[in-house]
Amino acid sequence: MASNADFVQYIADQCSKAGEIVTKKMFGDYAIYCNGKIFGLICDNRFYIKPTEAGRKLLREEALYPPYEGGKEYFHIADVDDCDYLSSLVRETCNALPEPKKKKR
Fold this sequence. Notes:
Elements: H1 5-14, E1 21-26, E2 29-34, E3 37-43, E4 46-49, H2 53-58, E5 64-65, E6 74-77, H3 83-96
Antiparallel strand pairs: 1-2, 2-3, 3-4, 4-6, 5-6
């Protein structure tokens, strides 16, 4: 089951205080980026964030699940209605993630 476009936009809006949020459709679901850095996935109308120690410290509830069969475990974020919480979580997670690799031309 793919994610609903309205849900994807809602998640993007809820994370908007962290920076420039962009979603990209991939394989029927979505990757989500902040300031050009991928930090999570939206799969089957569920929001997942890459696990980092900085993010773990802010979690209200820690739940690690793969977003799709055979995938790596991500933090599943069930509480998506608090914009300040999500934006803080996204900001701290992105600060802890490495910079994206430059594409060769």
